[in-house]
Design brief:
Layout: E1 4-7, E2 12-15, E3 23-28, H1 39-57, E4 61-66, H2 73-82, H3 86-103, H4 119-131, E5 135-138, E6 141-144, H5 160-166, E7 181-186, E8 194-196, E9 199-203, H6 205-217, E10 221-227, H7 231-246, E11 251-257, E12 260-262, E13 265-266, H8 277-283, H9 286-294, E14 302-304, H10 306-332, H11 342-356, H12 361-380, H13 387-403, H14 411-426, H15 430-445, H16 449-461, E15 464-469, E16 472-477
Helix pairs in contact: 1-9, 2-3, 4-6, 4-7, 6-7, 9-10, 10-12, 10-13, 10-14, 11-12, 11-13, 12-13, 15-16
């Protein structure tokens, strides 16, 4: 089955046909490095990480480029606030970015260019646009003339008239049209600059991505991606300036992920309702956020809430616990060879069909969970003859989950981290729980079952479930613990 993608430019699903058979050239807009990353950045990074992984899983040779914008008004302002050089701001938050991305198991792209390393390419593009009449210089600034590019607005499905009616006239009367955008900005006193034929200045935001994507991928390239908020003006302007400069189509497929809402309200820094990745992973395993986003189609908006995250946490725990159960089986049945299982193969087939249909991770994930249920069902039969089928199914489950960037940890590590987070949230320590368990054991020995039940119930109110086993009493986190085979 061919891969079909929703092309934002055409507004419909299209069969993916790469420019060069067997190769994929993909560019996704990266972050402006003036602050720590929030979960909106995480969604885009996860979406394109999974697309990257999936193309490779389907046998494509992928060149994936994701940039850093390391010169910008916000970066200059942050340098003044923090009292450090503007380029140090970029270095600081690039380091923070990698820490977050690595925690979330985001693969490093093929190339990660920084804007300041590609000034020469940007200047060449601006010069070409001025030369062919698509741009004009005013007092050291250079603007792109939107009226010179006939199909301006085709990506965002807007006409010039509609955009002009909504524009604030008089922002800069030097512009020929209020929609004309800056390709190059003259430097103000104390700002960083580069010496160019236009004078001392720095690049506009849009020209950066045109220069970097073209350098590493050529023209045209297969896929350009980013959040829906980038369609206009960023991607519209990128497309216009790139095609106006070269006379060649810029991109074949435009892919955009949906917004992240917090409790049904659009997440934004102005509203103060954004959540940093670094804060999220203090409370939850990073894969919880990945599972939450992938449980929704990438084009759909998602509503982040405490309940939705707890649900994702529970679901992820179940997957890891399934793997732990299989590990116990493998330990008890060393040397057993995996054996193909028809029902497993059907779910694998349906997983790939879902991903082929515009990267439908929500449907694909459902088949990973079906494999988990299948494993638990076979385990619960306690039939040694099922061991080869169970091990085979586990291997398939891990392989499919890995395509989604999940199940990269192990159960013991996952549970230990989750216990630690839960205890911190509850204001408990493992030592306090063990003491209560010992007091409960003593009460039971003295046949004071009422007191023993009080210890159990007290811990239960803190989300701690006690399990009496032949090896003694163990404790688990109640809201995420799934008993054998239960779903």
């Amino acid at each position: 089955m061919a891969i079909r993608v929703f092309n934002s430019f055409s507004g419909k699903k299209e069969e993916f046909k790469p420019i060069n058979e067997g190769f994929v050239k993909m560019y996704a807009c990266g972050v402006t490095v003036y602050d720590h990353c929030h979960i909106g950045h995480a969604r885009s990074a996860i979406v394109f990480d999974v697309i990257y992984r999936y193309f490779m899983a389907r046998g494509y040779d992928v060149t994936y480029v994701r940039n850093f914008t390391d010169i910008d008004d916000k970066i200059i302002k942050k340098s003044q606030i923090e009292g450090i050089a503007w380029d140090e701001v970029g270095k600081k938050y690039i380091k923070s970015f990698y820490k977050d991305m690595d925690a979330m198991n985001i693969l490093r792209p093929t190339h990660e260019p920084r804007a300041t390393e590609h000034i020469e390419e940007m200047v060449s593009l601006v010069e070409a646009l001025v030369k062919n009449g698509h741009a004009y210089a005013v007092d050291g600034d250079v603007y792109f003339s939107v009226e010179s590019f006939r199909s301006y607005g085709n990506l965002s499905k807007r006409t010039l008239e509609e955009m002009e009616a909504g524009a604030r006239i008089g922002i800069d009367e030097r512009k020929r049209n209020p929609l004309d955008f800056a390709l190059w900005k003259s430097s103000k006193e104390g700002e960083p600059y580069w010496v160019t034929p236009f004078g001392k200045g720095r690049p506009g935001w849009h020209i950066e991505c045109s220069a970097m994507s073209t350098k590493y991928l050529g023209n045209p390239f297969d896929i350009h991606g980013g959040g829906k908020d980038l369609i206009f003006p960023h991607h519209e302007n990128e497309r216009a300036q790139s095609e106006a400069a070269t006379g060649i189509k810029f991109v074949n497929y435009w892919i955009h992920n949906g917004f992240v809402n917090i409790d049904k309200e659009k997440m934004s820094k102005s509203l103060g309702n954004f959540l940093l990745i670094r804060d999220f992973i203090k409370d939850y395993h990073p894969e919880v956020l990945r599972l939450f986003f992938l449980s929704n189609h990438y084009r759909s908006p998602v509503d982040y809430s405490d309940q939705s995250i707890e649900d994702s946490n529970t679901a992820l725990y179940r997957l890891y616990y399934t793997l732990e159960r299989v590990l116990e089986l493998e330990t008890a049945n060393q040397g057993v060879e995996p054996q193909q299982y028809k029902e497993t193969d059907e779910h694998e087939k349906l997983f790939f069909e879902a991903m082929d249909d515009d990267f439908n991770t929500a449907l694909a994930l459902s088949h990973v969970f079906e494999l988990s249920k299948l494993i638990n069902k076979l385990l619960d039969r306690k039939d040694k003859r099922n061991a080869p089928f169970i091990i085979y199914t586990k291997n398939v489950m891990i392989r499919l989950a890995n395509i989604l960037g999940m199940l990269s940890d192990d159960f013991k590590s996952f549970e230990a981290k989750e216990k630690s987070r839960h205890l911190e949230r509850m204001g408990l320590t493992a030592h306090e729980i063990e003491n209560m368990i010992q007091e409960r054991v003593a009460a039971r020995k003295n046949k004071d079952f009422k007191k023993a039940d009080e210890f159990r119930d007290t811990l239960l109110t803190k989300g701690i479930l006690l399990l009496d086993t032949p090896k003694g009493t163990e404790w688990r986190i109640k809201h995420i613990f799934t008993l054998k085979g239960e779903e």
